[in-house]
Every structure is written in C-alpha cells, then in structure tokens.
Write a structure and sequence with these properties.
CATH superfamily of the largest domain: FAD/NAD(P)-binding domain
Bound molecules: flavin-adenine dinucleotide
Number of domains: 3
Strand content: 25-35%
Distance between the termini: 57 Å
Radius of gyration: 22 Å
Number of helices: 9
Oligomer: single chain
Largest sheet: 7 strands, mixed
CATH topology of the largest domain: FAD/NAD(P)-binding domain
Low-confidence stretches: none
Length: 398
C-alpha cells in the first residue's frame, strides 16, 4: 500500500485546483490525484462550446501539461476509480484493487449526468467527458436529426453547437417557455428562443418526453402534449447527480452532495470536499449551497487544498458562472432563479444590461447580460445585503 500525505479523489478541475492550493503552502508533502477517466484534469466548458466552434483544440483544454504536473511533484493515478473509503483506517481502495493510505483526503468526484427514465440507451447520449464529446462529434459528422431533451445549460449550448454543424437538424424539447427558463427572467428566455429559431433550431417548448422507443433508424419520442418526434439520436441534458456514494457508504454526512463546513471539511476530520460535489454554507447567506460551475470548482478546490495544508481559512469566495449562446454571453453571481422577484435593467430589445434577483428586497443574484467586467461590483452589491428598489438599482451595473 502506498501512503500519501494528500490524496485527492477525482482528477477534474476541483481536484487539480486543490493540488495547486496544497503546493502553495506545502512544497514537500506527497500528493496523489486519483482519476476515474483516462485523461489528466481538463476544462469541461469547451466540450459544449469552443471545441465545436473551432475556437479551441483538444490539446488546449488540459489544466496542466505532464511536465507541469511533474514540476509540481504531483502524481496522477488515472483510469481507475476509487470504490471504497475507510475514514478510520485512512485508506482508499480502487476498482483495480490498489490501496492508498492518506494523511488528508479531498473528495472531488463531481457528479454524473442524470439519465432519462426508461430511455433506450443506445440512441440516447449525455455529455460530460471528453470521451462523450468525441462520440458526439463522430455522430454529428454523419449529419442527421438530433433531438435535444432539456433546456438548461448543456441542452442550450449543444443546440447552438450542433445547429452549426453541416447536415445536422436540431430539435429541442424542454418544459419551459424558452431556453434557461428556470433561471432567466421571462423576456430574456424568450429572446433566446427567438435567436435559437433564427439559427434554425426547432424549439418544442412547454413539453416533455414521456416515452422513448427504438426504431429502425434511431429513436421515437412521445411527448406529454402528444407530439411524436423521430430522431437519429438524442442528447439528454437533464441535470447532474452528485457522486455521493463513496462518501455515503463511508458514513460521511451526505444529502445533496457531501456536506462540509465553512472550511470545506466534511463531517470526518481531515476529509474535505470541493467542486460540484461539495455542499457548503453560502459565504454571504449561510444557507447550504451546491454549485455546478467552473469558477466554483477552481475556488473551492484551491481553498480546500490550502486548508488541507494547514491554512484553516474559511471559504468566502462568491462563485460566478458564465455561458455563451450564439451572440449572447453572460456572467452571473449569486442565486439566479426565475422563482425570485426580478428587476431587469435593460433597454426594450434586451440585448445588453443587468437583471437583479431579489428576495425580501435584498439582492440575492445578479445576471450580467452581454455586460462585461462587472462581476466584482455584483459580488459587492450582494455582500452589502442592502434593501434596494428599482430606482436605486437602475443604471447601477451598466
Ligand atoms: C459540457 C460541460 C460544459 C460546461 N460549461 C460550463 C460553463 O460554460 N460555465 C461554467 O461555469 N461551468 C460549466 N460547466 C461546469 C463545470 O465544468 C463543472 O462545474 C466543473 O468541471 C466541476 O469540477 P469538479 O472537479 O467538481 O468535477 P468534474 O470536472 O466533473 O471532475 C470530477 C472527476 O472525478 C472523477 N471521478 C468520479 N468518481 C470518481 C471516483 N470514484 N474515483 C476517481 N475519480 C472519480 C470523474 O471521472 C471526473 O473526472 C460545464 C460542464 C460540462 C460537463
């Protein structure tokens, strides 16, 4: 059995950021990253954007090169998932039967895409890994009809990416009135719907799949409203399930993710969690949050790594997130839910501006719509916890 001072399960963005955080404070301690994928850590946002649109190549998406990892003296054990954690004995066992001892442990296993119930799996795909991207890329190269199920980030971004591939027809089926309707104020979701249609995407809003059947050519989807949709293949973007089994089986506190305190330490001393998997107290409001975004993985990973190396610093970063859809790009901070009251500070064409998400008059979230370099100001506004009305908000973050 090999022993490491720091063991990191999950060679994704949070795991890589944690290794960085450890090395900021401890140059000597031994560090091992265990990864279930064959790839060293890479950035996932290009899988649904830049790689499709020719803005990035596969070799551009890795967090670090092999020589960088060597220079940092961080070892990688890839293509072998951790299957058992013994917190008391301080060991982790992998699928291939390897056992590793640890001083401190980070759980950074992210999540896995939810599957549609009863879906015929051979024609229904999801997108989370580089291997998934390569599979979808090969399918798209053959042209044909693709049905995207789900109107959230993966569904919306992939509709845009696939609609730009020659010979591909895209239909998109989702429950809301427009893409990203669960987080955008209605006029912005409807603006996206209009832009998607202009780009040849066939939208099927306010509906959901109830049955998926295999056909000679591909799949047939029957919907709640009685539509019958034929597709060569289906891409499902219906959410992520945090990978909690390993922690749960080991007796750690788990609900929606692995519960950690403000230092990102789990219910077991010396075991931390970060990234998509971590459920931690919101730095401003204190309520438990689990965030599935790039900046959160970087920040929680680095902070957890530093705390594993002795920093003992509470996590205070307010995560931001971003997306690009056709000619619309946005950044956002805080809680964005179309269930909150919103104040949309934009001209009538909704092409550029800010939307504020309010709860009891307090700003809980800020959406910066084609509106750049305002993230810090948005964070400060949320942290100020002031009661602000439209007249005070108008023009504030333009
Ligand atoms: C297609 C796509 C596009 C995205 N675009 C954006 C975007 O535009 N903006 C944004 O803010 N966010 C975006 N995200 C989200 C962002 O990429 C994630 O929030 C981030 O990658 C989370 O990092 P993580 O390290 O927590 O998890 P991951 O990056 O998922 O890494 C977890 C790793 O752990 C491994 N693992 C799981 N179980 C085990 C185990 N038992 N043993 C060993 N290894 C294991 C997994 O294989 C995986 O490699 C996107 C995500 C995807 C999939």
């Amino acid at each position: 059995m090999a022993d490491y001072d720091y063991l990191i399960i999950g060679a994704g963005l949070a795991g890589a950021s944690a290794a960085q955080g450890i090395r900021e404070l401890d140059r000597q301690g031994s560090v091992l990253l265990i990864g279930g994928e064959p790839e060293p850590p890479y950035h996932r946002p290009p899988l649904s954007k830049g790689l499709w649109l020719g803005k990035k190549r596969e070799e551009d998406i890795y967090v670090k090169t092999a020589p960088d990892w060597q220079a940092m003296d961080v070892a990688l054990h890839l293509n072998d998932a951790a299957v058992e954690l013994d917190p008391g004995g301080r060991t982790v066992t992998t699928a291939q039967g390897r056992r590793f001892g640890f001083g401190k442990l980070l759980l950074a296993m992210g999540g896995k895409p939810r599957h549609l119930p009863d879906a015929v799996r051979e024609h229904v795909f999801t997108l989370q890994t580089l291997a998934d991207y390569r599979k979808l890329r090969a399918l798209a190269a053959q042209g044909g009809n693709v049905l995207i199920i789900g109107g959230s980030f993966i569904g919306a971004e992939m509709a845009c990416a696939l609609a730009q591939q020659p010979g591909v027809r895209v239909d998109m089926l989702f429950p809301g009135p427009g893409p990203l309707a669960q987080m955008l104020p209605l006029p912005l979701s409807l603006l996206l719907a209009e832009r998607f249609r202009e780009h040849g995407i066939h939208l099927r809003p306010e509906d959901r799949a109830v049955r998926i059947e295999a056909t000679d050519k591909g799949s047939r989807v029957l919907t709640e409203r009685g539509q019958v949709l034929e597709a060569d293949w289906i891409l499902a973007g219906v959410g992520l399930e945090p990978n909690t089994a390993l922690a749960g089986n080991a007796g750690l506190r788990v609900d929606d993710g692995v519960r950690v305190d403000a230092h990102l330490q789990s219910s077991h001393p010396g075991i931390y969690a970060a990234g998509d998997l971590a459920n931690y107290p919101d730095p401003v409001w204190g309520d438990a949050v689990r965030i599935e975004h790039w900046d959160n993985a970087v920040a929680t990973g680095r902070a957890a790594g530093r705390n594993m190396a002795g920093a003992e610093t509470p996590f205070t970063h307010q995560s931001m997130f971003f997306s690009d859809l056709l000619d619309i790009g946005f950044e956002a901070v805080g809680r964005l839910s179309s269930r909150l009251e919103t104040f949309v500070d934009m001209p009538a064409d909704y092409r550029q501006g800010t939307a504020y998400y309010l709860q009891g008059g307090l700003v809980r979230g800020v959406l910066l719509w084609n509106n750049w370099d305002r993230v810090e100001a948005a964070r400060a506004l949320i942290a100020a916890k002031q009661r602000l009305g439209p007249s005070e908000l108008r023009g504030r973050l333009r």
